[in-house]
Write a structure and sequence with these properties.
Layout (H helix, E strand, L loop, with lengths): L6 H24 L2 H20 L3 H12 L1 H8 L1 H11 L3 H10 L11 H13 L4 E5 L6 H4 L3 E6 L2 H7 L10 E5 L2 E7 L15 H12 L3 E5 L6 E5 L2 E6 L1 H9 L2
Parallel strand pairs: 1-3
Antiparallel strand pairs: 1-5, 2-4, 3-4, 5-6, 6-7
Helix pairs in contact: 7-9, 7-11
Amino acid sequence: MFIHFGIKDFIDVVLVALLLYYLFRLVKISGMRPLFLGILVFMVIWILVSRIFNMVLLGSILDQFVSVGLFLLVILFQDEIRRFLMSLGSKKGWNFITKLFFPDKQKNDKSYLTPIVLACMNMSKTNTGALIAIQGDLHLGLYEQTGEIVNADISSRLIENIFFKNSPLHDGAMIVVGKKIKAAGCILPISQNPNIPTHLGLRHRAGLGISQETDARVIIVSEERGKISFASQGRLKMNISPEDLQRLLLED
């Protein structure tokens, strides 16, 4: 069976394995892992029935499901497919190559993060709710258009004024691009992950949602408890200190 198994077949298997692993990570972030595993189990059963044991009747029934499976997958995983295509079109892969061959040229100045952490610490003390999304490789232009374009230098006072309770922009999200506050009062997608604790409000769900859709790093300050949370890659870290926030933001 493996007599004609060559280097090309090995590369083919490795690429398929990497693709399945990447897709598994995407659906794990969105909380659809059981559905993804169910599809994999169905595919294994279909291969065993139709290709290994040659069971004609059951195989023909499963073949009908497989023939329309592509359309069902597009419907079920439309968010994951969009996120996968967006990541392919981002500069993340080029950044990896640049870091590999020119590591010294990838040292970015992250001093702009300090006033963000300081503002979050002050807002935490006064129970001022806040939602800040820091753009990564995937652009957030679609979400910037839902709010007011600010395009201002980052400062802790400006951030605190935007999220002040009587400010017209305090209910929305702030989007930070590079060293600029790009927009405020923005609307972010709400996470549909069923594992989110029920006591969390829309700020946390929106912060987690944008971290699932993109590679943005998100800071949430609770208005009820004054606690700071951090969302990245579909994961939410709750009740963190300003020091932990600084460390998480500095991590690549």
